[in-house]
Amino acid sequence: MESDILVVTVQDYGKGSTYDFCAYEFGSGLILVSREETNDWFFNCREEIEANGLDQILYFTETEESTEWSLEELQESIKGSLAEFGSVPELALSLLEL
Question: What total number of domains does the chain contain?
């Protein structure tokens, strides 16, 4: 499954500085935010992406880059997120049924 790569720019609440992270947007609108210290986060659409703590998302930059995910990779990521966080969006749950 192909996903477009978005760059999410966030304002750090405590410092006032900004930082960026990547998000992967699938054709259905499903967003995957890959994390190293936890399981991946999933959101129904880019407008629902959450920043850490009180940090605020400023804007999204659409890149011309994309990446390919196998169904198995996505399903494993969704299962890990479910195990750690207890829920994922319906769009992600539907991928477990394929």
Answer: 1
Domain containing residue 77 = 2-96
| DSSP at 29 | S
What is the DSSP secondary structure assignment for residue 79, as one 8-state letter?
H
pLDDT digits (tens, 9 = 90+) for 59-84: 999 999 999 999 999 999 999 999 99
Q: Count of residues for the chain? A: 98
5 conformational bin, left if phi > 0, alpha if psi -120 to 50, beta if neither = beta
Question: Would you say 67 and 3 are in contact if contact means Cβ atoms under 8 Å apart?
Answer: yes
Query: For residue 39, how far is the Cα from the chain centroid?
Result: 11
- What's this model's pTM, rounded to 2 decimal places? 0.91
Per the DSSP assignment, residues forming a β-bridge with 4 are: 25, 66
Burial class (CB in 10 A: 0-12, 13-18, 19+), 32: buried
Residue 83, classed as helix, strand or coil, is helix
